[in-house]
């Protein structure tokens, strides 16, 4: 019994960590992390926790450093200027939707579980709208939690069919 419990703990820790890592990837985020974790064998609640943690890890770094990173990329890697321009345009475009309602708008934007929304894009928009970190973070966290609950419910519903 001890050996199988130890194996289960180590196996679940591996899946948990992989779910955290998958959820850190832009575009995939927790919208892909939760189904990934459940498919890997985690219970929905554990996949939710892992995906939320993974999705939130990059947020403060994006809000604080993305403009400096883009400036550095423009100076050191001019070939990537097109990509940087595209990302900046995306941030400004998404930021227009957020501007009217500020922090509530940011939370709602991050919470919408559709491609092109989420913590990465919301953090990018917050950075380009010069939102203070201490005010933007709670909005992004609220949005990630709402999106995570929606995706968890969908994932649980789909997996319970099988």
Commentary on this structure:
It is built from eight helices and no strands. The protein starts with a helix and ends with a helix. The chain has helices at residues 2-23, 29-40, 44-56, 59-76, 81-99, 102-111, 119-128, 133-161. The chain has 162 residues and is mainly alpha-helical. Helix 1 packs across helix 3 (44-56) and helix 6 packs parallel to helix 8 (133-161). Helices cover 82% and strands 0% of the residues. The model has no long low-confidence stretch (mean pLDDT 86). It has one domain.
Number of strands: 0
Rg over CA atoms: 18 Å
Shape estimate: globular
Report the order of strands and helices: HHHHHHHH
Low-confidence stretches: none
- The percent range for strand residues is under 5%
The total domain count is 1
Summed up, the helix count is 8
Intertermini distance: 29 Å
Helix content: over 70%
Structural class designation: mainly alpha
Q: What can be said about the biggest beta sheet?
A: none
**Mean pLDDT value:** 86
Topology (SSEs and partners):
Blueprint lengths: L1 H22 L5 H12 L3 H13 L2 H18 L4 H19 L2 H10 L7 H10 L4 H29 L1
Give a quick summary of the entry:
The protein is mainly α. 82% of the residues lie in helices and 0% in strands.
Question: What labels would you give this structure?
Answer:
mainly alpha, 162 residues, single chain
